[in-house]
């Protein structure tokens, strides 16, 4: 169990360290990948590859680790001198769809969003895997 938490913390520290080093020079897509998608992908890979119990407590702790790392990343990111320029340069408006980065990356609403995004992703993927395993087991016994 400790190994799983250690690897999740290490992977999140690695991802968000890349974001801190890359800083305001990254594109909007790179920001979305680093801040949201890569932590979810790696958390799920680690959660599924290391055997052990999969329960809500593990998902809460994993999501908490990711949210804490995101918080550190966002505090550093918004304190950079080029942050306002990064925000203005990375707003996309295609008429029907508008994508812009919230200037309050470390607000409580954003932290809750990151926590829930990670928690729901972990929970749903684990649920699908369990359902698949259950269907496979039922087919063997019929």
Give me some keywords for this one:
mainly alpha; 142 residues; globular; 75% helix
State the distance separating the first and last CA atoms. 35 Å
| Structural category | mainly alpha
How many E-type strands?
2
- N-to-C SSE string, H for helix and E for strand: HHHHEEH
How would you sum up the global shape?
A: globular
How many individual helices? 5
Q: Mind telling me the C-alpha Rg?
A: 18 Å
* Tally of separate domains: 1
DSSP helix fraction: over 70%
Which strand-content bin applies to the residues? under 5%
Kindly report the average pLDDT value.
88
Instruction: Let me know the largest β-sheet.
Output: 2 strands, antiparallel
Spans of at least 5 consecutive residues with low confidence: none
What's the arrangement of strands in the largest beta sheet? 1-2
């Amino acid at each position: 169990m400790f190994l799983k938490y250690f690897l999740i913390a290490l992977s999140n520290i690695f991802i968000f360290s890349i974001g801190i080093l890359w800083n305001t020079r990254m594109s909007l897509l790179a920001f979305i990948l680093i801040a949201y998608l890569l932590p979810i992908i790696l958390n799920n890979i680690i959660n599924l590859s290391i055997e052990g119990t999969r329960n809500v407590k593990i998902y809460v702790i994993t999501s908490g680790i990711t949210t804490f790392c995101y918080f550190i990343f966002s505090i550093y990111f918004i304190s950079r001198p080029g942050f306002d320029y990064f925000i203005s340069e990375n707003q996309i408006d295609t008429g029907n769809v508008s994508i812009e980065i919230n200037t309050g990356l470390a607000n409580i609403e954003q932290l809750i969003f990151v926590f829930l995004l990670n928690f729901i992703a972990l929970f749903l993927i684990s649920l699908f895997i369990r359902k698949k395993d259950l269907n496979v087991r039922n087919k063997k016994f019929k």
